[in-house]
Amino acid sequence: MVSTSPSPNNQTALTAPLPAATLWRMAKVRRHPRMPWLALIDLGDAVTGLEDFLCAYVLRFERTALVDVGPARGIPVLLDGLRMLGVSPEEVAYVLTTHIHLDHGGGVGTALRHLPNAAAVAHPSASGHLERPWKLWESSLRTLGGLAEAYGQPEPVPPERLLGAEEGMKLDLGDGEIEVLLTPGHAPHHVSFMERRERVLLAGELAGVHARGIRRPATPPPLYLEQQLDSMERAFALGPSVLCYGHYGWESKGESRLRAHRRQLLRWRDLVDEGLRAGLGREEMAGELVRQDRALRWLADLPEAQYRREMDFILNSVAGFTSHLERAGLSASSH
User: Fold this and answer.
1) I want to staple 295 with a disulfide (CB 3.0 to 4.6 A). Which of 10, 54, 170, 215 is the partner?
2) What pTM did the predictor assign?
């Protein structure tokens, strides 16, 4: 829990208007072809360069849950998507957050203003940041710069509307149930959610990124790779048949996709280690990853804005692996 007191200059009134989305268009929604209770709302039109990358999941049983409402700037698109799916704001019982990075959980406070019956579920160690997001916002501005501004400033979440996620917690949706799985790695407070009847794993960034034809790790610093691999092992044991990525969409053969991502994580670790031993800089190591990993072969075909975003994310992943290797004493810098 964060002990920082709210700053009067930084507080956002809970009665403030919604942030205006840039490049406004009608929301894009997708319904799963086999499971009528599962849908996706594309949030990417709210932030230039993140089209087909940001999404929220809608789990519509007798009661509805949302998974990762996205950044504050995307909440108008989220609400429009709910209307297109025929979901009223009053139906939403839970706002589930895999982690509080701005692109996943930055809009929780804004969303709750429009979802009167919803409780927010997040890792207990993230609760303080949701209640008092000033430090999170300042840190995001330092690390993300203009991208943080594009995501929008998070609003505080009322503490009485927060539920701490616990391992094995069951969330009752009437004719459906969601189980909580604590999955640290991408972030220490990362959480995944499982619908066991159809074996659907809403993985956040546990399984990395699968968007725009690109598959890659999402390993910002500080990376705790051992935690990530342990979290993946526990997810393997659940035998997921469908994998829902935070970025972006769903795939069948969920367990095999997870195992393929584990192999990719270890390959990137080894390539970054080789680069450190060879004295390569971060950009040179990112170039080596692009050249050697066929999962990135479509990168050059992306529109310019999306290409720049992907390269920024890859550079950030290199920094994460570097921090892991140096902390573990495995890289050349420690020999």
Assistant:
1) 215
2) 0.89
